[in-house]
Each structure stands twice: as C-alpha cells, then as structure tokens.
Amino acid sequence: MLRRWLQRRPARAVPWQAFVTALARGRASEVRQELAVLLAAPAAPPLARCLDAARKAGFSARECEKLAAYGEFALGQGAQAFARVLGQDLAADDLTLAIATLAQAYRAQRYDEACRLLTTLDGARFAGAPELPLFYIQAIQHTLAASGDVAAALAVYREACRLVAAERLFLVAYPLCFEAGWLDEADRLNRLLPPAQREPEERFAAGFVELARDYYPEGFRLYEARLEMEEARAGLDADLLALPRWQGERCAGPLLLYAEQGLGDLIMMARYLPWADGSSRELALIVPPAAQALLAHNFPAHAIHTAPPKNFAGPAAGMMSLPHLYKTTPTHVPALEGYLEAPPENRHYWQKRLAALSRPGAVRVGLAWSGFPGHRADRRRSLPFALLLSWLRQWPQVDFYALQTLQAPVCLDNLIEVGEELLTLADTAAIVDEIDLVLSVDTSLVHLAGALGKACWLMLPHRYEWRWGLSGEQNAWYRSVRVWRQATHGDWAGLLQRLGAEFAAWLAGRGPA
After folding, report:
1. How many C-alpha atoms does 366 have within 13 Å on its Cβ side?
2. Residue 175 and residue 170: Cα distance in Å, rounded?
3. 303-305, strands of its sheet edge to edge
4. Full-prediction pTM beyond 0.85?
5. Quick one: pLDDT at residue 230?
6. Between the CA of residue 483 and those of 210, 265, 289, 367, 464, what are the distances in Å?
7. What's the pLDDT score for residue 4?
8. Which has the minimum average pLDDT: 376-380, 412-416, 459-463?
9. Sequence-ordered alpha helix ranges (H) in 329-443
10. What is the arithmetic mean of pLDDT over 415-423?
C-alpha cells in the first residue's frame, strides 16, 4: 500500500517542457511525480540537468536539495537520498519526503536511524494532510522494529489517533493492539474498517490476528492476501507467478510447490508434502540450497530444485498456502513430530564430531539466542547475549552448543561454537539428533527440532507469533516443543529465572524434557 503511494505516476508520460512548467509551483514535493516519470522515461535527462532547471525556475537551495533526494529515490539510489535527507534535515517541513525516507529506511532495515529522524518530526505540523496516516504507519513500524518496545509503539498510536482516524492506521494498529492485549481496541478497529474496504496488506495483517486467536480457517484464508502484495511478490521469481495457481485440485500432470519465506516456514510446511503427493503423480519442489539435501533425503520421490525448472507449465503454489488448501485447524495439523530425519552421512559425521568436542558424560544442549538480524521482529524475538551469559554460567557441567551463525561475543569454556560448520539443514538436523535438548528463541532451529521430534524449549516474547498460540506450554504444530513465554513484554530476565528452575530439575533427573 505504501509502495503504491510512493510510486504513483500521472497517466501520461511527462515531457521535459511539462516538467519545466511544473517547476513554477516552487516546491519539490509538488513536482516529485513529474520528476519521477521524467527520470524513468527512455533517454531521460540526467538528474543534474533537472536540478539546474529548478534553480533557474527560482527554487531555493533547500528545495533543490529536496528535489535531488526525490530524484535519487526515483532512480533507485535510496541510500544516497536517505543520507541527503538526514544530513540536511530536509524532511522536517516536507511530509511526503519524510514518508519516502522512512519507507527507504524500512526496506533497508535502518530502524535506529529512522527513529532518530522521527524525533525531529512533528506530526501535528501536518494535521489534515491526506498522507499523515502513512507517516504514522511508518512511525509505528519503525518504533516496534527498532526497539521491540510495544509500549513505545502504542504511545505513537495514541498520538496518531489525536490527528487521524484510527481505521486509517489499521495495517499496523490492529495487530499491535492485539499483541499488546488491547482487545477492546482491536475489536473496535475491526468494526471500523469492514473487510470489503481493506487493502491486501490490511487483510494479511488481519490474518495474523485470526491465526493467533486459533481461528485457523479464516486466518489462513486471509493469509492468502500476501499473493496480492507487491512486497511479497517482489521476493518471488516472475516465472513462478506466471504459472497457473494450484487450488488443491487433482492434477493430471506435474505439480510444483515452492518455498516462499524463511527456512523455518519451509520446515513447518514440509509436513504437508505426503498429503500433496495424492494430488499429482509428479511433485516437484523449489527450495533454498541450504534445504535441498535434507528434503531430498526425506522425500526421495520428488524432484528437488533450487530454481524454477525450465519450461514448466503446470500449476504451482507457495508452500505457505498448504494449510489453507488442506483446511487446517488447530486440532487438525498433520505430523506433529518425526516427519523429518537427518541423512545418514551427516549423522555419521556429527556423531564422531561431537564425540571429539564433548566432555565424557556431559549433557549436550543446543542453543540459539538470536535469529536473522534482517527479520523485522528480530529485536523482539532475540535474547540479549549479555543477559543469557549469566544464566549459562550457572551450568558449568553442561556442554552448550551454539547452533547459530552469529557467534557469541564472550567465550565460555562450556559454550562450543559450531555454527560456521552447519553448512546446510542436513548438518543442523544431524547435530540436533546428537544432543539432549534444544534451547532456542524463535528461529528455524525450533522448527527443525520439532520436525525431528527432539525435545526443545522455545523462549518467546509476550503474546508473540501466531503459530505458537497465546498461552500455555503447548502449541498446535510440534509435540516435542515446549513454549516458555515472557510474563510481560520484554521480560527476558523473568523468563530465564523460571526456565532455570525447571532446567535444574531436568538436569537432576535426566528425565524427559
């Protein structure tokens, strides 16, 4: 929705003379669309020529700098434009430039810098501007992504509601209020913006809330709105999107399923592949290279590709559509454990490797305290290592294996770093087979442990991530995964204290986790 607004263009191409005429408006924000179309045209003039024309038309030096930033955004030079805006405080009196800059920061995951920009902007200055809801949507997104602080994001939402209608903020406000436990406000927002009036991004956001409420059929139906979203489609191969969309029907010819998102999502959806077998005599998969060996071992009858096969003309579907196509409910999820196993050659290697690394008789615990930094929820889901360090020091008798690529900033005698040796999911699966327990925040490691049937304790933020439910230690997807939740937002210390008491009892008994 935001990207569509930023990329709006006039219906006809804008010739040079029309751009020069538009410069009479005197403000960069009022000619940004003409400039963008002009720069996208065949044989477009250089941006420097456009700026010279603006100076001759009487643009101030500040407005010329703004126009330069708009031009850089249009040319795909977002980092350069971002630096220009921040370096000269160009957005303070230009709402459209502020929105464009915040959008660039969100795509580039520069959340801290965006939040510094936000401290210089006063939304009340732009009261009544039709673009103001987009500004506050970005402000809430950046606040949450930068700090993981739900309370701070709610404060921005309250400020926004004094200036714009709450339903205009539905995209971020609905899931935010639900996550914060503001259920009355979430329900009010749901009523204010009827489903028929929602953009694909808003339907997608509503889908997350429905899934968190365990309303799986409706949630997965709304989750399909991602297929209409420019951001989601931009991450997929255009050849895949051009194929006929599979709707769950029986296929006379081959069927293609493709991974869409992270490795955890792929592992989670692999449970459906035996069901999909019955829909076609020839099933092919497209997966990231890191997953190919593991899936090829577990599904030898399928062709496993890492890129779209040439000349494929049959129907295709993203694997995240499988829960919708198979009408999944929280009590009707296939294969709760043991639907994957590590390839023998990887198991053999890691049996010997861990025998060499481990102390005789020591309990082996796999550990992951942070996820992929580029994930927009990573600062909420990742556990600060400094906090974890004091917890780890309580258990010198345990061999902890760091099963993540980001290395620990402090070395402990009993913390063994093997992340750089885990070249594929087949390696990770093999080492998980050889340990006694996995302790992890919400990463693909949890999905892999659950798929293997390995005991796993999952450490979660408060009211976070639909697939793990909202309360209790159990979840609908993996029988062997036990969920530990923050009692309040951001309370990792309290979670570790509770987990430590149970961990001590588990160690003493060496019983099932």
Report:
1. 30
2. 8
3. 303-305, 283-286, 255-258, 316-318
4. yes
5. 83
6. 20, 18, 30, 15, 11
7. 53
8. 376-380
9. 344-357, 378-381, 385-392, 425-433
10. 93
Are the C-beta atoms of residues 106 and 114 closer than 8 Å to each other? yes
Distance from the first to the final alpha carbon of the chain:
45
Task: List, in order, residues 6 or more apart from 56 with CB less than 8 Å away.
Answer: none
The closest alpha carbon to 291, from 256, 260, 315, belongs to 260
**pLDDT, tens only, 165-190:** 999 999 999 999 998 989 999 999 99
Q: Exposure string (b/e) for 323-353, b if CB count within 10 Å is 16 or more?
A: bbbeebeeeebebbbebbbbbeebbebbeeb
> For 132-141, 378-387, 404-413, 444-453, which range has the lowest pLDDT when averaged over its residues?
404-413
Distances (CA, A) of 320 to 139, 257, 500: 29, 10, 35
Please state, in angstroms and rounded to a whole number, the distance separating the CA atoms of residues 74 and 51: 14
User: Residue by residue, what is the 3-state secondary structure of 287-327?
Assistant: CCHHHHHHHHHHCCCCEEECCCCCCCCCCEEEHHHHHHHCC
Count Cβ neighbours within 10 Å for each residue of 480-513 and write b for 16 or more, e otherwise: bbbbebbeebeebeebbeebeeebeebbeeeeeb
- Phi and psi angles of residue 458, each rounded to the nearest 5 degrees, phi first: -100, 125
CB 95 within 8 A of CB 135: yes
Residue 375's pLDDT band (cuts 50, 70, 90): low
Long-range contacts of 390-393 (CB under 8 A, 24+ apart): 391/496, 391/500
Six-digit token string for 210: 């429905």
Quick count: other Cβ atoms within 10 Å of Cβ 240?
Answer: 18
The pLDDT of residue 317 is above 50: yes
Q: Under DSSP, is residue 399 helix (H, G, I), strand (E, B) or coil?
A: strand
Residue 316, beta-bridge partner list: 245, 256
Q: Decide: 134 and 99 in contact? Cβ < 8 Å.
A: yes
Q: 119 in helix, strand or coil?
A: coil
CA dihedral 371, 374, 377, 381 (to 10 degrees): 20
Least confident of 139-148, 188-197, 406-415: 406-415
Q: What is the pLDDT of residues 433-488, one digit of tens each?
A: 999 999 999 999 999 999 999 999 999 998 878 999 888 999 999 999 999 999 98
